[in-house]
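Q: My labmate handed me this sequence with no annotations at all. I'd like to see what the chain might look like in three dimensions before we decide whether it's worth expressing. Could you predict it?
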Amino acid sequence: MPETSLPRWDLSPLYDSTEDERFHGDWAALERRIDALARALERRRVGRDDAERSPEAFHDVVEALNAVDEAALPLRAYVHLRQATDAGDREAAARISELEGLLLRVDRWIPRIVAWWGGFEPGPWAGDYALLLREARVRAAHLMSEDEETLAAELALPGERSWVRLYGNVSSRIAVRFEGEERPITALRNLAYDPDEARRKAAYEAELAAWKAHADEIAASLNGVKGTRIVLNRRRGWADALEPTLHERRITREALAAMQRAVEASLPVWRRYFRAKAQRLGKARLDWWDLFAPVAEERRRWSWEEARAFIVAHLRTFSPAAAELADRAFRERWIDAEPRSGKRGGAFCMHVGGGASRILANYTPSFDAVSTLAHELGHAYHNLRLAERPPLLRRTPMTLAETASIMNETVVTRAALAEAEGDDAALILDTWLTGAAQVVVDIHARFLFESWVFERRAERELAPEEFAELMEEAQERTYGEALATRHPYMWAVKPHYYGSDFYNYPYTFGLLFGLGLYRAYHDDPAGFGERYDALLADTGVEDAAALASRFGFDLEDEAFWAGGLELLAEDVARFEGDGG
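A: Here is what I predict for the chain of 580 residues:
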């Protein structure tokens, strides 16, 4: 399918431009709601010694906060979506800065509100907000003084968030002259899927050279972000950089440790997969540029319309509601699929309000791109289910944010495998295992890397070469002898290092938790859909352990995590056998 025929998303249901009357009207409405929140805080004396701590006072402030979040949602989505597809969109960048400045008023109040909430004793009156109050007690114990928290919020705009923007601007604008034409770095990375090894290798080498040429700016960004987090974590009394992420993601350290033990125990299985793939490619060992290489010629070229029909049809066998949502996303142009210069790489889904979403993709006519679309449409379905809740109860931790996307991806992949034969089946199975290996093996490498970065950065800034050395060491620990080469600049490739801390392990959690749910669906489909939809709607209401227990899962039991990995081990064995 020619790139020019791939769709771009339609943002007009949000706004036509930042000069749109709707945009200005919503901006004014947001300002009014922020003023209303200020009045509610004053009315309930929040932040004062004589603060009112009645159920009525709590709900008064909660309703005002929800109103602010609801008003900010489409504005924030619109400007960020514009910048995601055009890094040079200065108008969007200016509006992002203005919006952050406006919402800084609310950011300044959050520590005061959290400290106030921390003094409440949750009871039946709290309803679905009980978890929010319990978590506020923990967060309140890790707050600096109100003046310090306010200063930290104000400094985030010219400080940490500027480092994040620098990374985004630098990385999205990198272009490389390759094979006689200028290509964006995202297009160059897509050549990792090319069947010609010489071309893959040349693209890999050109990519490394491009990252190296910009390594100083990107390393400055990483040093700036992680250095800021280290100082704030220390001042807030967290034991280490991991602890606040566990709290935010609503899991225990014991659950993470159980998952990591299961992952490490599975590494020999993944090395078998890499060796089997190398054999199919006619090599003794894989090189880095072979990780995404097709193991055979893909006979089927997945046009955009074929991808649409396949995804919708097979989601319908699992969840008619998820299928209808996917069909709506295609029909109403929620998806920006065309790769182009200035557009952010990879894929993501963003809620834009009212249960609607927008999906960024960089589509190629391969099954890998089809499974990615199914994955992002799962996020959109999760957004639809969460739309039933007020904004404060939509805040899903990263550990649970992958639940619907993994379910979608698994359903679509299993359907494709059931229909395919020969080389096509081998390709689909390899696509599935390649993605799973990224989430299990590569993400474990990224987790190790980030852990070491926090340890070293606590002492001093790191040079680009040091980041590269740490990344190669992490890849050695995970891929081991199965790979002959490494990617020392993966820390520059992945934007998540800059936007959050330990973004990585929630993806592994999401995959294995999703596979656990898939097994539950496969074993007993009757009534599963209702329980599944209820779980998605409640990911902002209960912690991960409580939601898992609805299906009989114990997150602190290594055997639970091993169960999902066993499904993947069966797929590896199938790949080692006939590949289909």
